[in-house]
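In response to a reviewer's request, we include the raw inputs and outputs for one of the modeled complexes. The four entities were modeled together in a single run.
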Amino acid sequence: MGQRKSGHVTLHDVAHACGYSVSTVSIVLSEAPLSQNVAASTRARIREVAGQLGYHPDAFARSLRRRRSQTIGVLAYDLSDPFCIPIVQGIQSGLQPANYLPLLMDAQTHRALFDSYLKMVLERRTEGIIVIASWVFEETNLLADIEKNHVPIVILGRDLTGKKIDSLLIDNEAGGALALRHLLELGHRRIAVIRGPEELFDSEPRWAGIRREAANAGLKLEPRLVFQLPGLAGPTSGFEGGRAIAQQMLAAGLPFTAVLAFDDLTALGVVRGLTHAGLRIPDDCSIIGFDDVLPAVVATPGISTIRQPLQEMGLLSAQWALRAIDARHGVASRASAVQLHRACPQLVVRESSARAAQGTSRGRAKRKERA
Amino acid sequence: MGQRKSGHVTLHDVAHACGYSVSTVSIVLSEAPLSQNVAASTRARIREVAGQLGYHPDAFARSLRRRRSQTIGVLAYDLSDPFCIPIVQGIQSGLQPANYLPLLMDAQTHRALFDSYLKMVLERRTEGIIVIASWVFEETNLLADIEKNHVPIVILGRDLTGKKIDSLLIDNEAGGALALRHLLELGHRRIAVIRGPEELFDSEPRWAGIRREAANAGLKLEPRLVFQLPGLAGPTSGFEGGRAIAQQMLAAGLPFTAVLAFDDLTALGVVRGLTHAGLRIPDDCSIIGFDDVLPAVVATPGISTIRQPLQEMGLLSAQWALRAIDARHGVASRASAVQLHRACPQLVVRESSARAAQGTSRGRAKRKERA
DNA sequence: TGCCCATATTCAAACGTTTGAACCGCTTGA
DNA sequence: TCAAGCGGTTCAAACGTTTGAATATGGGCA
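The model returned the following structure tokens for the whole complex.
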């Protein structure tokens, strides 16, 4: 039919087919302000022909000319972590109304991939970048390039306001405290804690919150019941770590009635480890996780956890990015200060936590206090 | 510094800064064949300046000129389904070596979103489209537009070869048979089956495989123990469905020692339902799922399941797409016939399936044969 | 008749690249 | 001495849009 060198239908094709000039066709199809001056009959005719030919405007040419890509880059450190998904969905729903498209990239925890994607994002002229919680992000020297190219960034999952980057994260300290308080309120005093891996930013403040809450309650945490997850590697490393630590816990020979795990996958690992050792959850031991990801919902027993409002956080990050873009184009007030949002964690009680064993009506007789 | 109207550093800026023409700079930085003719000192100088300025080529301008977007669109029906993630990763790793980038979009099961994304994909001139298993895809009239614009499509998760679309899917029939065979080999005869929702393409052949295997083994499936999942809505609808059906199963009053669930989330729902009714898995009842998604791995007991090689399938789909693109550019042999690949399902035995209750050494005494 | 206004349409330049062809100054073999 | 060749660099046109300025057409009004 009317196609030219490239396989695509162009404005030129449509113009040729209906006898008007490229300009007119462009004005009509892009609904430019000028299109009010175009005769209604012409408009109709052009639209009709465009439809017949299956015309879709070329985003490259358009973006090149308009200098807007209508795209923002989303860099996830690992999509296979169920943690990322709700965030991505939130971002998407935040972008949708503004007709922006997320350019989603999964670094799969590979540093090299991360860098190369960051470069691609820059090349594709995304008007903003949202980074989902990445270890090493700040080291990368691409950050300088990003600044040179004036692309606004939002980071989700850690505080980089010190580097003048808008940051959004959960209030880890409050979350840690909330988790411990829940266990305390259920009457637990002998509580094992699994701290997060050292290279993860969340680990420290979460642990601080736990200690604070313990201090408030006059509880002294037994140091031998405090464990530390090894570094992360792969999506199930939290699970494996939790499982291994559960065994260590039992081997330690100290009594405990509850475990506060760093996150949900770790909690699920603990469930596995303790269950295999013959304990029952929550009758013999309560467990609480963190994040509230899908596996925590569908496991049995359902895992009590501290919920991160991931979707809301994603949404907000998208809105921030859009605002920053507007500012760059002079729409909104320019040069507002760098922002920080600490999302509020929320306790979700499911089946993995229950009153401490002694004197409970619900629990069956404890069969083994420990291995 | 040297920036011009757009906030970005352009070839022109670099040329200006180092005193060479735009052409030379382009030739050097894009490593065109001609760059061998450029003096080594010039090359070095240009690279140096480009680096200093933080130059990144504008993908729009480049793609416009080269008529290659180096991008393929990936349309997932719902990213929050853990099923999608390994596929996406597979696609990504298949695209990586060819330096193609996936433009990932999550339709979130919304028909309207799906259409608008499809349109965007077309506008962004992705050179190919991979669709992950979508109910209604074939209905959409955009399909005609896609054809008009000559963009190769691959669909993952159903057979659309009838519409001349390359298709990749699991051998559902073999998978269903495999699942049943596993239960039979463990000595189960009273087996409940949960069929998939009607609108899902996988449901029917999977059920056919089950019936075939049953017939082979001379087993007659009890019709009152065959259930049907209601239509899907949301990521946890499979779980909720399985849970509800587990209760119906018990209420039916018929003995059964195993459940063959449509997928893993359904299986997890069944675990929840039966566990709450006081049964133990697998001692009192074996359960097998389908897919092998993350929650099935980290649940306790781990869910025995039929694994789909999702990552491999994703990888293959990417390779197909790339091949089709090559063909369009005359590199590979043109016009090969439409392709179909049925991936081979694989049994993964975990903890949710065990020998049938009677006469087993492993199982504890069955406490309730049924509710 | 000439002038202005409104309406409907087109011109042409730009966006930032890539690339075939052209150019320039030198050497070199005939 | 000259044509040919070559290394190194630049010209200029194109890719498909958008858009401010320009054009053509036709009244209406003085």
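As requested, we also summarize the result in words. Confidence is low (pLDDT under 50) at residues 359-371 of chain A. Residues 20-24, 27, 37-39, 42, 61, 63-67 of chain A lie near DNA strand C (CB under 10 Å from a C1').
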